[in-house]
Write a structure and sequence with these properties.
By secondary structure, the protein is mainly β. It contains no helices and 18 strands. The protein has a 4-stranded antiparallel β-sheet, with no helix packed on it. The radius of gyration is 16 Å and the shape is globular. The chain starts with 5 loop residues before the first strand and ends in an 11-residue tail after the last strand.
Amino acid sequence: AVGVGATGIAIASGKVYVANTAFNGTNFTYGQGTVTVISTAADTVVKTVNVQTNPQGCAVAPDGKVHVVCTGDYGTAVGKVVVIDPATDVVSRTVTVGGSPGNIAISAAGIGYLGTFGAGLITYTSSTGAIKDSSTHPLLAGKDGSGVTFDLAGNVYVAAFGLDKVIKVDGTNAVKKEYLVGDGPLSLTTK
């Protein structure tokens, strides 16, 4: 058993990290966001970490730390990324990114990409938390953004939910191609 509204998941250092939104469907509010930590060796929950409002996506950075994107409440609580150190399972940094990002992917180069509904991509450096493209000046502004993934060449693919497209962006953040897909693409993966 994990927290209410389990959404995002990642594996690091022999542990599974599960983001729990704490969404209350009765009154449409969010309780305390948490991340449940499960030991793969013991097959049990070992810790619950309090994080920011509405944690949804999880990703592991090149340094092994777990980054959890907390979407906020789509109003007063803005998007943040909480960084958990798997050596201690303690929050080591919180980065305010703004907007309402829902999905996260981190490149091998350590760049975090946050798919942000209605705004595009917010990007940041995973090792420092320095914002590269903010909620006020996002990459793909006006093009939307939800799911994010990479290919082996370092291209970024973004599911643009509201546009019914997948957008391919190269390592210099130039849009290379837009693919018209079905209604409301949300998640992506590569093989």
